[in-house]
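Handoff note, outgoing to incoming analyst
You'll be picking up this chain. Sequence as last confirmed:
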Amino acid sequence: MIQIFENTQLLTEAAAALFVDTAKKAIAERGKFTVALTGGSSPIALHKLLASAAYRDLIDWQKVFVFWGDERWVPFEDERSNTTMAFETLLNHVPIPKEQIYAMYSETATAEEYAVQYEATIKAVVGEDGAFDLILLGMGDDGHTASLFPHTAVLNEEKKWVDAYYLEPQSMYRITLTAPLINKAKNIAVLTFGEKKTNALYEVLEGARNVQEYPSQLLAPTNGTLVFLTDKVAASRLTTSK
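Most recent structure output, in case you need it:
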């Protein structure tokens, strides 16, 4: 499913509504809301909106459990840290218990070791089925999502829920949820907007299937919903936007 908005403000409001509604439903049904946040710049406006007075009190943050979809394996003080960005824009501004925030980085383990630990934590907190209530994702202008980059071995992963590997073009380790786990989620929302995403969005949604070239094509929930939230600019090549 794709939802196309006139501008990023309307897109952000829709994403916030989805976040709030999904949280309320999960808490009402099971007493907790499990979410995996996305990194990069895409979610910053969403985070700030959720932390604002108009939205902050709509969610029982005491019952929210926060994970990440992927992370650059850098210290928290590094400006590239998705974790630090999320704290600065959202988590420091809402009353969520710190022990319910599961950073995707450790100072005492290697990336590969921590991937194993992180998977165990997901099983303990989210459940043995691994079904997050909501996974938020972005999409790069190369069609990657999370840290599922084109032509990387992680795209072929079938068993691990979390993986870590060295990404040569960026000269750094990345840790990421894998496609098999992401597709277990009850709700997956991809935030993508702007001119740089136009071609990738077209290829992912309407182009020939080539997951090695456009890894976002791997998104196919087994028993949940997938929605792309995009603006008119990014969607300009899609036949559905005509």
